[in-house]
């Protein structure tokens, strides 16, 4: 994995086999992207697998996950279950990248969705093939279902407003544990 020396310029998502690095323009851009990723995890009911979020993390791994999140790599997990977890993580990788980009570009509209979709697909398709042993058409199908689901949810004005509020909180607090994150989401959703 390439290490990056500028605290705001990239984010590393360590999910399946590969390491996905996303580059950020500045701190606001980074917080918007992370807010999107948290919303994606919320949409997929994966909040219990977050330990903490730390935007000053030295390794640029801003979201820290529980070991259960990576359980598919364990020798103790039966193959079928390991495959199901790997498949789930493939969907989550897609969803997190998608939500990250939507929250960052919703203002600028510089990137069209087809560009975004192509960029994400190129990054995650290999992972789907190698980690989940999926055929090309299966990768396509899962990718498009996930993409459409997230895209549909993220077009909602309330969800985009929620993302903006979360981004501001991330920037202000810099570090949040799982309980703080749950409280934040609950309080913002009740507004």
Summarize the structure.
The chain is mainly alpha-helical and 191 residues long.
Written account of the structure:
This protein has six helices and five strands. The chain is globular and about 40 Å long. By secondary structure, the protein is mostly helical. Mean pLDDT is 78; it is low at 1-10. β3 and β4 form a beta hairpin. α1 (27-43) crosses α2, α1 (27-43) crosses α5 (157-173) and α2 runs antiparallel to α3 (113-132). It has helices spanning 27-43, 79-105, 113-132, 136-154, 157-173, 178-189; strands at residues 10-14, 19-23, 50-54, 63-65, 175-177. The strands form two sheets. A three-stranded antiparallel beta sheet has the order 4-3-5. It has a two-stranded antiparallel sheet with strand order 1-2.
Distance between the termini: 40 Å
- Proportion of strand residues: 5-15%
How many strand segments? 5
Radius of gyration from the CA trace?
A: 16 Å
Mean pLDDT: 78
Helix percent reads: 55-70%
Q: Element order, helices and strands?
A: EEHEEHHHHEH
* Number of helical segments with 4 or more residues: 6
């Amino acid at each position: 994995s390439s290490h990056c020396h500028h605290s705001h310029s990239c984010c590393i998502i360590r999910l399946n086999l590969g390491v996905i690095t996303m580059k950020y323009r500045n701190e606001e851009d980074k917080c918007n992207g992370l807010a999107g990723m948290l919303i994606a995890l919320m949409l997929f009911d994966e909040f219990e697998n977050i330990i903490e979020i730390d935007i000053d993390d030295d390794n640029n791994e801003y979201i820290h996950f529980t070991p259960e999140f990576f359980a598919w790599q364990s020798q103790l997990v039966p193959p079928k279950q390991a495959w199901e977890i790997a498949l789930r993580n493939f969907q989550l990788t897609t969803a997190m990248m998608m939500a990250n980009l939507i929250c960052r570009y919703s203002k600028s509209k510089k990137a069209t969705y087809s560009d975004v979709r192509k960029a994400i697909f190129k990054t995650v398709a290999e992972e789907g093939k190698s980690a989940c042993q999926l055929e090309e058409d299966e990768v396509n199908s899962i990718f498009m279902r996930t993409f459409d689901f997230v895209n549909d949810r993220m077009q909602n004005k309330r969800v985009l407003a929620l993302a903006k509020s979360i981004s501001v909180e991330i920037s202000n607090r810099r570090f949040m544990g799982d309980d703080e994150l749950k409280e934040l989401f609950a309080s913002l959703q009740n507004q």
